[in-house]
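Q: Two folds, back to back.
A: First:
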Amino acid sequence: MKRILLFSKTNQISIVSILVVTGVLFLFIFNKNKTNITEKEVFRIGYTNSPLLSTMYNSKNKLEKNNKIIFEKFSSSADIGYALLSGKIGAGFVEPSKALIAKRFPEFKHIGVVGKITYPYGGILLVRKGLDLKMQNLEGYQIAASDENCRIFQAFKKDLGMIGKDVTKINIQFMPYETMISALESGFVDAALTKSSFGLLSGKLGFTIPYIQWDIAAGDKCCPAVVAQTEYLLLVNKKFRKCSTVLINEMMANEKVPPESLAVTTSFETGISSNQLLTLPPASFSSADMSLLQLFEGHGTLDIKEHESSEDDNERIKMMISLQKATF
């Protein structure tokens, strides 16, 4: 009888041990599967052929040596947004306006903002290929501009006045910034007064730059400070959040790379002359830390309070703020 009792206790101890080990293994497997990443999966990063992604191009050359990281080129950042939503890629560089569209879909709950590409804010006049236009001889030509009350337009108007020229004698066509390049290439307009970041495309498209003005502060209706300098957002599927730190760290390190080196790498990727790229400052990358999010939220609130914006403008700013808060 004693022997049977001892055997029973031993069995009990063995059973408990098996249960504990099984439980540990279950938790391990559960936590591993919770990330939804298998060993066969790779971290796919979507990007476009934009000179604004100079720090990414430099990182791409290093990170592609890792066979678990693949960079995929897309024709537009809208395509990248949809690829993120469908789960075909793990991260991507998406323009803010396209990211706001992506945010409308329920699948965006799996996406977070981890960084942004910014460019110094200013106004620039792009002249289409084949025309020799200067500030002194714009009269009679078709010039695209964003809005009559835009600070870029107001600065342009002031600078014209300083050389004795009247902006009312120029044929101004008001249109969104996003449509100006197409309007120039098609010949619909002869020149475009736009954001300075568009100047990086001038060499590739054959545009000339007779005017540039850096002494302009963003924060009006056409260029809210919350979005004016942000050219791309780095969006990441949350299951790849750990993988994204490798990309973020590399891009942050590239902020110390000389502009000449960035220009050579960007020239190779985009086909734009490195000499042309060096005529303008490169874009910058920063991670979406808490101080950055607070700064954006503050600027968003400032824009809403100080400027008489439409409901659509206010909603766009609020959506941008909530998009930034989606970081994880």
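A: Second:
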Amino acid sequence: MIRKLHLLFLLFLHQLFLSTLLCSAFSRDQAQVFIVYMGEHRGTATAQEIHGHHLSLLLSVKESEEKARQSILYSYRNSINGFAALLTEEEAASIAELKEVIFVFSGQGRSSLHTTRSWEFIGKEENPSGSQMDWLTEKAAFGKDVIVGMLDSGIWPESKSFVDEGMGPVPKRWKGICEEGDAFSSSQCNRKVIGARFYLRGTKPLRTAKHVVRVPIGEGPRRPRHPHRLDSRRPQRQPRVLPGRLRRRDGCRRCATRASRRVQGVLAHPRAQPKHRKHMLQCGHARGHRRRHRGRRRRAEHLHRSERCPTIVLGRLNSHRDAPCGQAGIVSICSAGNSGPDASTVVNLEPWVITVAASSIDRAFDAPITLGNAIVIQGQTVTPYKLKKNKQYSLIYAGDAEVAGTPKNVSGQCLPNSLAKDKVKGKVVLCLRGVGLRVEKGVEVKRAGGAAIILGNGLSSGDEIPVDAHVLPASAVSSHNVVAILSYIWSTVNPTASIGRATTVVGVSPAPSVTAFSSRGPNRLEPNLLKPDITAPGLNILAAWSEASSPTKLEEDHRHVRYNLLSGTSMSCPHVSATAALLKSVYPRWSSAAIRSALMTTASVSNNQGRPLIDASGGLAGPMAIGSGHLRPVHASDPGLVYEASYEDYLLFVCASTGTQMDPSFPCSNNPPRPSDLNYPSVTVTVPSNGTVTVWRSVSDVGGGSAKYVVSIVDPPGVAVEVQPKALLFTTIGETIRFRITITALKGNNRRKMGYETGSLTWSDGVHYVRSPIVVKLN
């Protein structure tokens, strides 16, 4: 029974952090974290009464009251009704059978984090002078007093990006606290960072030689810079490896991208001084429910999470429930994941969440490589280390310099201890990306005595070059340049190369392009909902960095920086979050669905050359990669029309998609609307061969009253799309008009089975262009 419930929930709440793999590591008799969801609270029960009821459920499977109290981790007593507890699979299965319990599912595991010029680039994409971006930020009062909840791995409060100079008092509606933890005092909150919480229960202790520490939340299998060692001589630079320490290195960069202050000479949008308020909640899983739960109670109006979001998102759904008359629910924004370019890798698949992909900007950090035959290969780097000027160094391919026994399937990838010192010493080494961290490949070259590293892309990464602060001179090159360098090495008796000084170049084209790492659709859980929703800058983004960590986060690297360049959907997500906060400031009565619609329907599908967006390999980037397109904040502030959706609409969507009743007070009907009929700003349908599918949408006027919108259609190949009516006449602001979309697979269409075709429909009054992608799965 519990597996069935788990799979149902999995079908809608995106793979719950590889729960199948994690659960297999536990025996049925070993207690692990399970989350029990019981829907909404009813009546006027006090917090103590709710907690007591949760304990009574545990008593039905535990031997004593004491064991029941010891097993419960969190009681969710605000936006949702449920609890997290340590249970065996048998106990969890028994609780799942109780009538008042809707879901029970595993809560074991850890989140994986999905991790300047970008804002200026976005502004220039909308207007060559970039002045309109200033207009939006000024109109929004720089997001003054909008409260943003950041669900992340921590923050470095000393960063100048988080100073509160010029900010007024904390809004009276804020009810949260600034919780103290190791190396974090309440005095480090201010009028910018107004609150902070961390959650430990459910983490798994890890014992080391000197200390009992806990597995760092959100970290993959990486080595900490210092192996859990405290240095009393430099207490301000302790490695923040404990989840109880809010001063974490990763979260700092996302906070800074999302809502940092101007820092002279560092940030690239010098005229903007964001005045959003931030509330930090540190990462977790069972803890994640608690954070969202409290974030809503403390009245965060905007929820940002740059993670895979494997935890429950009921709090995000329920944030829409109490929004009167379609007004302010919490705007939930999550990253799409970094598992691209493979299909069906996108995560955060709920319709009430804005899911953000990653794309490039028009900046490069050119570090030219001059080969011995005088051919110049353009690479990129941000390492401060340099080779001697005008000196040619011997050049070798890592695959030709490996120790005996190196597996052939990882040859050339400069994995730890794979290079032979006698073959590498003093040379420039060409290493290939693939297995292992990029920066660790540089560490291996340095260990073997190499002079520099050239890091080459594989075919899947194409022209996309994420730059790194390597520990030695370096330059990274595209996949086609790897071929050129290898051809030179293998055709020359004594190949040589030099790496020139790095320079920053702006105005690079084509830009933006979708990154190879950005996760792609289709939506593997509900094929009739397009994900991701939108793309934004996520490649080589400058942001604040924790001084407790080196720029590479490797133990061999002892450098400290205040700002760092990072890539990932963790960096694109904050751009959309910041834009949503500005929209919330300009239009405080807009619903989260309206904000999502404004962002999506005004997104661009063209690059700075006026051509369609492409991906890192040079191919066209369709909706499976970019959703509706690339973020345009100014256009989003005046969308003309919006697609609205309510809490009840989402419940009906879940009913139709999974047959599951998410809210006990809202039973599923016998014939709920199909998932494709959710009033979403994109259209995704499955059409049988030579068949026809009809879906419905409605739009509301937010553009200024009397207006006539006319539809234009780009038919997907092999498909005919008809919209009725073809014109929409609005007389008042807020008026809503419904329209029908009929999609027909043409006879004789020989498209491959199970293929996806894409087109679009656009409503325009001559000023506004409200575009929705159409994705058709042909069966």
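Q: And?
A: The mean pLDDT is 79.
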